[in-house]
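Homework help thread (please don't just give me the answer)

Our assignment gives two proteins as sequence + structure token strings and asks us to describe the second one. The first is just a warm-up. Here they are:
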Amino acid sequence: MKSIKPLLVMTIALSFVFCATGFSAGIKERMKQRLPQIVDLKNRGIVGETNTGYLGFVTAKKEKQDVVAAENQDRKDIYTQIAKQQSVSILLVQKRRAASLFSNGITGHYYQNEAGTWVKK
């Protein structure tokens, strides 16, 4: 049951982002396909959400690096598009997203605080 809530929250959040930015179905579909793997990595404490809105490795175990890199690239593309649409810096978009991910975060997952330290929620 633990993985259902993150999937639902992330799906809703991604739907909003894609609708608001007009991103192609390709990015949306790729992110949807990766989501179960990402949730699994988060549940096992291997990856967490950084203070800049990307996935980061919490431990030295760098499992599924290709999945994490692909997710981060798609997130960067989305953040760049949002920044252009809102005429703000990508850093501001990243910080806002990181804050949102933490606020809506799942207990037991890791998040990076402002100082860069990993904390378990």
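The one we have to describe:
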Amino acid sequence: MFKIIGAMAEFARSLIVERVNAGMRNARFKGMRIGGPPAHT
């Protein structure tokens, strides 16, 4: 039972990662800034 739940969770995580990466790619393509302001050290 735990293996099935683990496999489903892993699949859901991979879908989320794929969606986030596609959104970041799309934002970069549109010229949006990603992240916070540059850090000054």
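TA reply:
I won't write it for you, but here's a hint about the kind of observation we're looking for: The helical segments are 2-29.
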